[in-house]
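Run folding on both entries below.
>entry_1
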Amino acid sequence: MSEKNALKVEKLTKIYSKKSSEKIIALNSLNLEVKEGEIFGLLGPNGAGKTTFLNILAGTVIKNSGYVNVWNYDLDQNPRQVRSSIGIVPQEINLDAFFSPKNLLEYQAGLYGVPKKDRITNTILKLVSLEKQANAYARSLSGGMKRRLLIAKAMVHRPPILVLDEPSAGVDVELRQNLWSNIRMVNKQGVTIILTTHIMSEAQNMCDRIAIINKGSLVTLDTPSNLLGRIKIKKIIFKVNKIIKNDSKELNGVKFTYDSNNKIIVSYDRKKQKIEEIISKVKNDGMEIYDISTDEGDLEDVFINLTKN
């Protein structure tokens, strides 16, 4: 992967002023870099500043201060080049019901001033697996197809960066997998992908690196595996013949929770305790273990931990 930046922002700040002289800081001196060719996740709770950030890139919101560079173009000096370097796939499905995918892409290419001889409509339709539906009315497409058509629409001017805002919202599991394989295929063609999602497992599986922002500031930026390495608390679930509650103080910092279905859920710090000690404790308390499973934790745990404050 190239180490060249596809996007770089420094000290990016956006403050909204309300009539009551109250100010809302949507972005607070945000710094981040997206590498060329990567799939980059942008995560954060509602109100974290993700939408404001994307709208600044799209040119629909004006920043207060800071530096934005997209594909080597400075937003202040070359706003048109910045806009043409990005294809934004919105969260809402906004398609003309009576256009066919082919007509829609041709029309969109015309809006971007792409000459007829340079248009790659059929190639894009193939890339998002819509070549068979090229001439169908948009209203007859399924939810997943409409979502892929939005991606196609954002690609007509061949932008090197594609921004996907919650691309799998309202898409069922099977179509979601199809959508992700399409996004991977687009990425393999050399397109840099910036992705926002509320589904943590998607970010964990899809992204090369993930930025978590909260209250307009960058909380962390790292690879999924490094973020997962931060999880200290691990869980073990025991299925036993009969629950016998004994004093658990002898194992310092280990939390035992008892379930009515003869299950014991044990939370412990993986750096301080060994799993063998916990198994011995359960056996010594007089319980027969039928089954043991572990929960390593996932990106959701990291996200909650980093954004709860």
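>entry_2
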Amino acid sequence: MAKPLAITDTVLRDAHQSLLATRMGTEAMLPIAAELDKVGFHSLEMWGGATFDSAMRFLGEDPWERLRMLRHAIPHTKLQMLLRGQNVVGYKHYPDDVVEAFIVEAARGGIDIFRIFDALNDVRNMQMAMEIVKREGKHVQATISYTLSPVHNNETFVALAEQLADLGADSICIKDMAGLLKPYATYELVSAMKKRLSLPIQLHTHYTSGMASMVLLKGAEAGVDVVDTAISSMALMTSQAPTESIVSMLQETDRATGLDLARLAAIARYFGEIRKRYRRFESGIAGVDVNVLEFQIPGGMLSNLVSQLREQNAEDRYMEVLEEVPRVRKEMGYPPLVTPSSQIVGTQATLNVVLGERYKVVPEEVRNYFRGYYGRPPAPIDETIRRKVIGDEQPIDCRPADMLPPGMPKARAELGDLARSERDVISYALFPQVARPFLERMSRGVERMEVIAAAVAAKLLKNYEYANGNGGTPVATAVSSWKLAARREPAGTTWGLE
């Protein structure tokens, strides 16, 4: 019996986060939204991860407005976001009331599927978010952060999936953020999960190691229900496997997706032109990076390491840092290298190498990790290193968020009249140092991208060449029209296309 493989496309979130430092603006997404909505994707991943922070910090955008506009422009396809459990869309644990407020507003704004993960696979850090999403009537996709270590194997991952299913998950995602999954290992893991779980299984991987398309194929053969891909012009390297390749690969099989390659190709042409506008944000990692296989470092972490070393005039120490990362990771109890643990491990490894003495300088985030403030590591922490980092202080053993006082009343009081809505308060509770100057600019009317973006999108939508391939306004010309519209806005509006 045919069982079509469902596709989640990541072009609106993970693809540009991986390739373009999360710089794609909403104005680049709106003109193609209607075409994306017609494809028949299982879902579109378009929010969460680093997009919330980056929208305010770099693009002069309100992330809540992006959600509102894309929901309006994509009425038929499910919208999906990446939620970092108790970290929400940030890099630390937030109080339960902040987690709840965020999820309620995100659900109200149009998110259908919440992909919830924890960097340490500590279920305690996921449970609160899962309960709120379930209460709001949305889809809980509980997520396993895949990694390789002496304490991680298929049995531990399947057991974790069963635990998440018992907590009310609607589906399970295998999240391979570094591209470590190998094709036959994928087949074995998916097969094991399908035997012991009745929930749908979704598979997420990155092309960093060059194996992503083969991984998705073996996952499909093992019965995985949904896979993550990215439209071809925003695929490969540290992004996902190309959507069109997977669709073509499975044609005339019992897993055929049924998606229209011609429509996908037209969308790819659009994003191919859009990508040129963000060229200076390219990660600089070209092709396959085999270092991920040896050192298990995700592509985004690699680019951060290069940046840190460049700032220290120590780019020649790159390989030393790569070799130091696995040592630090082992000492920290083999955390999966995903936000925020990848930053914690990578920063400490860099300091160890550049300063010439291991743990001579220890950032507060690293101390908090050893204190247990990020959760329970997968394996015991090296006691010698722990004593060096936090002395005789005893790590906590409770759920980290249990130690946090409510955050929303404090945020509401500090923001005062600057808050236009509850969403502004949430933004401030998550990123006070970013949200306050952003909201101050908004209050002066400097950045009102939502009005002009919606107007320009409506005007240009019918004229783009992606609509029928001929007779329309060339994409490059249309994008230039966006820039002309941006120039009519008050000074300071960035639009992400400068």
